Amino acid sequence: MMKHPSFEFDRRRFLGLATAGVAASAAAAAPFAAFAQAAGGAPLKIATIGSGREGGALGTLFAKQGHPVMFSSRHPEQLKDLVASAGPTAQAGTVEQAVAFGDVILLVVPYTAVEQIGKDYGEALAAKPLVIDVSNPIARRDGDAIVSWVAEQGGAGLATAKLLPGAHLVRGFNAINFARLPEDAHRSGEPVGVPIAGDDPNAIALATGLIKGIGFEPVLVGGLAMGKYLVPGTPLAGEHTAAEIRQIVSSLK
Ligand SMILES: NC(=O)c1ccc[n+]([C@@H]2O[C@H](COP(=O)([O-])OP(=O)(O)OC[C@H]3O[C@@H](n4cnc5c(N)ncnc54)[C@H](OP(=O)(O)O)[C@@H]3O)[C@@H](O)[C@H]2O)c1
Fold this sequence. Notes:
Layout: H1 11-17, H2 20-28, H3 33-38, E1 46-49, H4 53-64, E2 69-72, H5 80-86, E3 90-93, H6 95-101, E4 104-107, H7 114-126, E5 130-133, H8 139-142, H9 144-153, H10 156-163, E6 169-171, H11 181-184, E7 193-198, H12 201-213, E8 217-222, H13 242-252
The structure holds NADP nicotinamide-adenine-dinucleotide phosphate.
């Protein structure tokens, strides 16, 4: 595993950046400003790496919102039903085609696949304004060794940053079950909160707009170091309102 600078989480800084004004001014000063400003609702090309249960459900939400979506698989011919149900803005491709297509990448694979994806596509992924890391290290699926390695890196956020050096990462949707996504999106009453963690202000601003667009309330809980709480089995897992997420996060300090 390659060495990677560690990130310090400064809660005040991220809470500050979460406000629209600061995010917008940060966006204006950076190379991906146009994407961050588009987060308010303009269609963006979205590609999924991983189009299984969670990747398929999430990509479908973005496609139904009008974003052009490319679902990818190592066997894209098997995605016909998914593409048909996601609607006219959806298509299928290889992982390579998806990486080339997407302005925003949803990384939704078993965690064991992330290292090879980084080796094969790391440079291209680092050039994207946003990679939403939905992937989790799960011992029963991925094995104890990778779960231990991830813990040694400081958790899934910092670990993915090592595997995808330079990528503009935001963790999100990590512990909301795929089967709940369609009914949670745009639910009536208070929206379902999505805890997110990231270190890059523009990527955070872009993710915030996209997640709001599909009918959830993103809540920035901190930098990638907080990504260790955005996995199944922590107090943040499951469905909570934004207020509940903030309450839980305050109890994590
Ligand atoms: N299921 C949930 O409710 C849920 C909720 C939140 C987060 N997650 C996380 O999301 C990730 C995916 O879970 P899932 O339940 O959606 O799994 P899944 O249904 O088994 O789908 C896995 C997907 O990953 C792709 N994939 C596997 N290895 C790959 C590789 N080396 N390169 C490219 N693509 C590869 C597979 O594509 P191929 O067609 O090429 O095999 C498949 O589309 C996991 O990390 C999981 O912890 C899942």
